[in-house]
Amino acid sequence: MLKNSLNVIIIAVAVIISSYLFSNAFQNRNKSNDTISVTGSGKKDFVSDLIVWSGSFSKKSMTLKDAYAALDSDREKIKSYLSGKGIAPNEMVFSAVNFNKDFETTYNENGTTRQQIFSGFTLTQSVSIQSKEVNKIEELSRQSSELINSGVEFYSTPPEYYYTKLAELKIKMIAEATKDASIRAKSIAENADASLGNLKKSDMGVFQITGQNSSEDFSYGGSFNTQSKNKTANITVRLVYQVN
């Protein structure tokens, strides 16, 4: 009799404890779901403070020696031209010379290859300039066709624009995006007659740099525009708050 009563008491206590633990777990589960997720954004327009511009030139001759001599002559003309535009010698970076053996292919009447005839050596070299004088180099890139008048076959490439204070800019934008997300979260909570609790999670979105007033699309992995001098940086931050 006593043994049976003791078993009943033990079972009753176990049921009460189990019920309490289950109820507490259920409440905590619901509590963990009482969160709000918001996304804030930061945007900043800025002007590039570094420019990289390059161009290439080439010469062709039947002998390698003559091709090198002609290329050397063009290189000196380019150095003289750039110096006259205010470019210091240490700002001019010339690449290694690249050369190719050229052949002309002749064909038979049926379209098959008859023979390949050597037509000379083509030597090519490039020069690049990196400078913080963005406007000056930008103007120089437009005027470089003047080299053609001196007999140099110079092919200019579009300048590339960069910003040397990108790390500092990114930190400021993260702070701006975080503040924006926090304001959004508080507004949503207030309108729902609730209050924000602790910050549960934060994630930073992709950092994007596009040309100002352009139609560039954002990239999943982040875009980094180098064609525009005037740029716009965008970043997003996602915050998850506990809601009370």
UniProtKB/TrEMBL annotation:
What broad taxonomic lineage does this protein's source fall under?
Bacteria, Pseudomonadati, Bacteroidota, Flavobacteriia, Flavobacteriales
Question: Which portions of this protein are annotated as coiled-coil regions?
Answer: none
**PANTHER family, A to Z:** SLR1258 PROTEIN
The UniProt keyword set, sorted, is: Membrane, Transmembrane, Transmembrane helix
Top-level taxon of the source organism: Bacteria
What protein is this chain from?
SIMPL domain-containing protein
Q: Show the InterPro entries listed in the entry.
A: 26kDa_periplasmic_antigen, SIMPL/DUF541, TonB_box_CS, UCP029033
Transmembrane ranges, per UniProt, are 6-23
